[in-house]
Amino acid sequence: MAWDTEGTKRRLLEAAVHEFAERGPDGARVAAIATRAGINKERIYQYFGDKRGLFEAVLTDQLEQLAAASPLSADHAGDLAEYAGHVFDYHRTHPQFLRLLHWEGLQQQDGELPAASARASHYAEKVASLAAAQRAGALPDEVAPGYLLYAVAALAAWFFAVPQVVRMILGADTDDPDALRAALVALVRRLEIRA
């Protein structure tokens, strides 16, 4: 029987997402990831090099999943509110992604980020899509497209990044995620209106 390399990598990535989200890159253990995946830990070293390589692969994979779930192409960039809703939905169903980013931010000391070039390129494409929408008149141009993307990403993620602060500010309104999503979409719609 042939070895399912891609299936094995996928199982390791899925197990690693949860281990890294729970314990961070330093606290996560290769043996625990392998056990969770039901795969010999030697496969981690074979496919990803080391734990840092696996963390990089996990972040890259998670970013690709977010991009697939919430695309922002030039022809759709004019509907920024809908994009914000998709990002909100992704974070709601994949809370580990923000945890991974927080761990990365907390432990970054040497200035190196996993897959920094690929990740920056991903965001640059989104910024370019927003710039194109602004040039076409589909979005106002009072705010630079990079700041616009940052604002939408921050608004969509903040609900999940610090839910305790959201509860303190909004109280009982936080009990209904659909209401939070609707409020987010309404806020971002305001960013789409020319002053």
Describe this structure in words.
This protein is an all-alpha fold and 195 residues long. Helices cover 73% and strands 0% of the residues. It has ten helices and no strands. α7 crosses α8 (145-161). The chain is globular and about 55 Å long. The mean pLDDT is 88.
Spell out the blueprint of helices and strands:
Layout lengths: L4 H23 L2 H8 L4 H7 L2 H19 L10 H14 L2 H12 L8 H20 L9 H17 L1 H8 L6 H15 L4
InterPro entries: Homeodomain-like_sf, HTH-type_TetR-like_transc_reg, HTH_TetR, Sco4008_C, Tet_transcr_reg_TetR-rel_C_sf
Organism: Nocardia acididurans
Keywords: DNA-binding, Membrane, Transmembrane, Transmembrane helix
Feature tags:
mainly alpha, Arc Repressor Mutant, subunit A, 2 domains, 10 helices, 73% helix
